[in-house]
Amino acid sequence: MQLNKIFKGLVIALPVVTMMACTSTDDSAANAATENARIAQEQAVADRKAQEARDSMVEAGKVAPMMTPAEEMKQELMALENNQLVYFDFDRAGISSKYYGVLDQHAAFLVKNSGQSVVIEGHCDSRGTPEYNIALGETRAKSVQTYLLNAGVSPSQISVVSYGEEKPVNNSSSEAAFAENRRGVLVY
């Protein structure tokens, strides 16, 4: 009888133990499936972000295509030609510090492009004798030349010419017109 009770207990316990074992296996499988789904979702998000980054690089390439060195030089030269004036005070040839940036840009361009040359024109207003204005225009042009030479530009890249009062940009006799005519011009 004792054996019969043990046997009955096993018959009842075995299905319960089996059920419990299956239930814990199902939980492990469910946990593993959930973890795999989470990893797959994270990977999908990472892949999407990587694709967006690649797409944005392609779009950026469309906006700013690579330029050849010749095209780059031409673009730099056009920018410099829009900023080529240095103005001087009355009867002075010293360069004001506000023009150092302009001249530094020109110097950097000329150092980088050793085959390029520049002519520095010196100009004056109409006050003073023609001889005096020619000499002052030359002194102004040479001031700009000295600045560029000190910035590393080769002397063979620079020429100087003085027009004195011969080529005014404003023919009026006002102080504003005189100020416009007292200039150095960098011409490529």
UniProtKB/TrEMBL annotation:
Coiled-coil ranges from the UniProt annotation: none
UniProt-listed Pfam families: OmpA
SUPFAM superfamilies in the cross-refs: OmpA-like
Topology in membrane: Lipid-anchor
Acyltransferase keyword on record: no
Subcellular location: Cell outer membrane
Extent of the signal sequence: 1-29
Chief subcellular location: membrane
GO biological processes: cell division
Annotated GO CC locations: cell outer membrane
Keywords for the protein's UniProt record, in alphabetical order: Cell cycle, Cell division, Cell outer membrane, Lipoprotein, Membrane, Palmitate, Signal
Domain OmpA-like: 75-188
HAMAP family, A to Z: Pal
UniProt record similarity statement: Belongs to the Pal lipoprotein family.
PANTHER family: LIPOPROTEIN YIAD-RELATED, STATOR ELEMENT OF FLAGELLAR MOTOR COMPLEX
Assembly and interaction partners: The Tol-Pal system is composed of five core proteins: the inner membrane proteins TolA, TolQ and TolR, the periplasmic protein TolB and the outer membrane protein Pal. They form a network linking the inner and outer membranes and the peptidoglycan layer.
Protein's name according to its UniProt entry: Peptidoglycan-associated lipoprotein
Gene that this sequence comes from: pal
